[in-house]
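Good morning,

Attaching, inline, the backbone tokens for the sequence recovery test we're adding to the shared suite. The designed sequence is right after.
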């Protein structure tokens, strides 16, 4: 069963990694870069402050995000990867190495199971959905998480299985930490937040995606590659 899953994962990897052209090479490379999304992370922080004010509740929610993502990231990188020891598909000791397309020579570290990008992205998405409880924002943040993590497959640095396991780890940590905090602090399920904080995150995210569509076709792209 495990051997069959490995072959299926490799076959799906080759297929999903095969949709390449010059535009998507630039778009996916930038999408995968964590620093590109700092404005969105900042917007989430601002939205939390707008929702709760400078209160202990606000500090608790910020700590909730920090603790969850730290746990998800460290679990994948420090504990699970040494157990699985699965080379990234773009590495020479991968069985499908010669079939993988890489972008700008980027190959990441040696091992990739599970994906830290996926764990962090889906942990963040789950927490945003739980904290803000706005349908449009929830839909956007999960679309972002899917595109952000697919970019890792596109770049050849993660198998789909790496992404799925990482997403499960991040989601489980988000749910576990969130509801544990709710129980121990005595907070009931929150009502839907006001539209403004959620709209700030939505607007910032849409603006970043718009720039990511435009930049690969401009002279800014080579400059960004040098910076990143």
């Amino acid at each position: 069963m495990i051997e069959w899953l490995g072959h299926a994962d490799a076959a799906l990897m080759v297929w999903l990694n095969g949709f390449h052209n010059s535009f998507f090479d630039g778009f996916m490379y930038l999408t995968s870069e964590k620093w590109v999304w700092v404005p969105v992370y900042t917007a989430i922080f601002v939205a939390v402050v707008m929702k709760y004010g400078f209160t202990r509740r606000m500090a608790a929610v910020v700590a909730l995000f920090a603790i969850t993502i730290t746990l998800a990231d460290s679990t994948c990188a420090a504990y699970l990867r040494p157990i699985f020891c699965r080379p990234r598909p773009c590495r020479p000791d991968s069985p499908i190495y010669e079939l993988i397309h890489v972008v700008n020579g980027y190959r990441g570290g040696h091992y990739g199971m599970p994906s830290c990008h996926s764990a962090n992205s889906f942990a963040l998405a789950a927490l945003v959905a739980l904290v803000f409880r706005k349908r449009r924002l929830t839909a956007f943040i999960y679309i972002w998480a899917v595109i952000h993590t697919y970019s890792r497959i596109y770049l050849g640095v993660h198998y789909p299985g790496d992404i799925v396991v990482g997403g499960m780890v991040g989601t489980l940590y988000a749910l576990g930490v969130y509801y544990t905090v709710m129980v121990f602090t005595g907070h009931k399920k929150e009502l839907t937040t006001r539209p403004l904080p959620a709209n700030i995150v939505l607007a910032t995210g849409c603006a970043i995606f718009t720039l990511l569509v435009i930049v690969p076709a401009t002279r800014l792209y080579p400059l960004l590659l040098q910076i990143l």
